[in-house]
Amino acid sequence: MQSLMSEPPKCCICLEEFSNPASLPCGHCFCLGCIGEYWRIQGSCQCPLCKAFFPTRPQLKTEQTLLPGRRTEEADMPLKAGEVLCDFCPGKHRAVKSCLECLASYCDTHLEPHYRSEDLGRHLLISVVKNLEDSVCRLHGKQLNRFCRSDQTCICAMCSQTEHRGHHIISINNEATKKKVKLKRRRMKLQQVIQERLSRVEKIKLSLDLSGENPKDAWTQNKELIRQLEEEISELQSRNTELEQLSQTEDDLHFLQVCVIAGSQ
């Protein structure tokens, strides 16, 4: 049985093996990303363990020699659906955070300055998004995290207190959930219409096979009707595929933005 003493050291914030360990002046060590996020959320520089308070952001000592192969192994793994590449990596590693101030996405290594620098530490970091410019309010430069149902548009927190003050406003996630439920009902009705058209075509073709002495004349008479029905079926199936792809959109903001554009056309 492996001794507890032989287990690799772990960060007490994420409870996982250290990723780019960083030591504080008090001596405690954390993942650079973990302590950087902790300070950003808390709004002050304090050790999570001993509660030592630092009036200014301290110089962190990183120990990149620990777990040297882990960064390479993670970087070499193929990108999964929805993952984004770092904007500054020559080797194109996957990004772990996006910055709304810099309008860029960063891997662990290139994100370091945002956790080391006091000025960059004030920037708003969010989960990685593909189209970063589309996630920021063009008027206020803030993250689009609300939806105005009155105007059917995505807005930021500042918009809700100014241009959209008094409007019916809910979170992006709640609105996306509501719209996805409606989208599912719409697809079910669409599939029902498709099935009805297919059944009608089959009935017409079957009646032609049993039409008696002049099947050629009967076919000529119904040929145009069958053609029209098959065109309708093709268009309905194409629309159903579009709605299915839209319903599978994981990014709620992007999903709503597409819905708003589609609704205005």
Written account of the structure:
- The chain has 265 residues and is mainly α.
- The protein folds into three domains: 8-62, 2-Layer Sandwich (Herpes Virus-1), CATH 3.30.40; 78-135, no CATH class; 171-264.
- The protein is built from seven helices and eleven strands.
- Helix 1 (32-42) packs across helix 3, helix 5 (172-209) packs antiparallel against helix 6 (215-247) and helix 5 (172-209) crosses helix 7 (252-264).
- The protein is elongated, with a radius of gyration of 28 Å.
Number of strands: 11
What is the strand content? 5-15%
How would you sum up the major sheet?
3 strands, antiparallel
Rounded mean pLDDT is 81
Which stretches of 5+ consecutive residues score pLDDT under 50? Answer: 65-72
What integer value in Å does the Rg equal?
28 Å
How are the strands ordered across the major sheet? 2-1-5
Give the class from helix and strand content and strand pairing. Answer: mainly alpha
Shape: elongated
User: What's the structural domain tally?
Assistant: 3
Q: Helix segment count?
A: 7
In N-to-C order, the SSE pattern is EEHEEEHEEHEEEHEHHH
First CA to last CA: what distance?
Answer: 66 Å
Q: What proportion of the residues is helical, as a percent range?
A: 40-55%
